[in-house]
Write a structure and sequence with these properties.
Mean pLDDT is 91; it is low at 1-33. α4 (62-68) packs across α7, α12 packs across α13 (269-277) and α14 packs across α16 (387-399). It is globular and about 70 Å long. 48% of the residues are buried. It is α+β, with helices and mostly antiparallel strands. The chain has two domains: 7-277, no CATH class; 291-316 and 351-399. The protein has 16 helices and ten strands. Helices cover 34% and strands 10% of the residues.
Length: 400
């Protein structure tokens, strides 16, 4: 590849491809759609809730992103590129090598196109050269990926799919505003994991990024079931994690956070929830499981006092009826309790539709495969399954 992006293509990217300057993705950036779900999709993908004040003014993330983050490095830490946002000239430029993936200027150009999934940027021209001046994030950063149809990390959006390639801790640790101790904590998380309570209680115990699909009918949208609907957690994340302009108050944990005087969160929660509830879990790909084994596994799964006693109903969870104490978790008590830091101090049973798509498993990612999940249950609950039966049940769960 050439060391620099070609002048013509850079002009297309920075000046003409999207038309006009970069925008923030906040409330003034999107046009409300005719229905709630379409509006929610726009919010999910492009709305920052005004969190640029946090990511720019406090963490100063625009500095490392604008000066040192090349597309190649961005892909290495799990950021994704929406191929459908790329004009034909850029697609051909990437294929031919005329658009360099080793240049921060290309990262800036991709931000201009709204092509970096979950990241929004604002540029200013200084001496005829565009510089990144403000940056923010959206829900899609963690809860969308791409189908890799163009290249690894570049393809069509898959909303609701957890980005298990993303290394949020490593990205946050790029901030020049953080001290060495915090950088070490963030860097320790690893890809596909994030601790949504660390900046509130100072305890670093990350959980896997969960899917945002298949939540219709579940009742509890998070590992610990803190709120009665998705809007509760959306507010928590938008305000306390993303740094959006708004307020969150939870007396059970003592968390009270207010950012700014203008609420850019509350009015968007109904549409955002409507879109998330419309995201169906992806069907298992053809040929990805053994149908005969899965049928044997289905019978075992539904055996009395077996898996279906908790993973029940159409969503394969009893979360709408109850939560469970930490002792019921297959990832505890051997590991520090994530539930102890939550509002409920309990766990919900994870729904299983689409489980094939998002290894590793359990809230802490301690089970690498579905076979490891079933074997853990088998051992801890003394279920008495043979090795073959464990494999059959895993095939059944993989088929859901």
């Amino acid at each position: 590849m050439q060391a620099r992006i070609s002048t013509t293509l850079l002009a297309v990217l920075l000046l003409g491809a999207c038309g006009g300057p970069m925008t923030t993705g906040s409330s003034a950036d999107y046009q409300p759609a005719g229905d709630m779900v379409a509006q929610g999709r726009q919010i999910f993908r492009f709305d920052t809730f005004g969190d640029e004040a946090f990511w720019t003014d406090q963490l100063r993330m625009h500095e490392p992103i604008g000066s040192a983050l090349t597309p190649k490095k961005a892909l290495e830490v799990g950021l994704k590129v929406d191929a459908e946002a790329l004009p034909a000239e850029v697609v051909e430029g990437i294929k031919s090598g005329k658009v360099s993936l080793d240049s921060p200027a290309t990262t800036l150009a991709l931000l201009k196109l709204n092509a970096v999934v979950g990241v929004k940027g604002v540029a200013e021209s200084v001496g005829g050269v565009d510089r990144l001046r403000r940056v923010g994030i959206t829900c899609a950063l963690c809860h969308s990926t791409v189908d890799n149809s163009f290249a690894p990390g570049i393809g069509k959006r898959l909303d609701g799919w957890p980005n298990r390639d993303l290394n949020p801790g490593a990205i946050i640790a790029l901030s020049p505003a953080l001290d060495a101790q915090k950088k070490a904590a963030y860097n320790s998380w690893g890809k596909g994991k994030y601790d949504p309570r660390f900046n509130q209680d100072g305890v670093s115990s990350p959980v896997v990024i969960p899917p945002a699909y298949g939540l219709a009918g579940v009742g509890k949208s998070t590992f610990t079931g803190d709120g009665n609907d998705i809007a509760y957690w959306n507010r928590y994340v938008a305000v306390t994690q993303m740094g959006g302009r708004g307020s969150f108050h939870e007396p059970r944990t003592g968390v009270t956070v207010t950012h700014g005087t203008q609420d850019l969160v509350s009015s968007k929660l109904p549409a955002l929830q409507a879109y998330q509830l419309a995201l169906a879990p992806p069907a298992a790909p053809r040929g990805s499981f053994d149908a005969a084994a899965a049928e044997r596994g289905r019978v075992l799964f539904n055996r009395a006092n077996s898996c279906a006693s908790c993973h029940s109903g159409a969503t394969f969870t009893d979360a709408s009826q109850r939560l469970h104490p930490p002792a019921d978790s297959m990832a505890e008590p051997e590991r520090p309790s994530y539930a102890a830091r939550s509002a409920t101090k309990m766990y919900r049973v994870t729904p299983l539709r689409g489980a094939w798509q998002h290894p590793p498993y359990f809230h802490d990612g301690s089970a690498a495969t579905l076979e490891a999940v079933v074997e853990t249950y088998n051992r801890k609950r003394n279920l008495g399954f043979s090795a073959q039966e464990v494999r059959d049940i895993a095939q059944y769960v993989r088929s859901l």
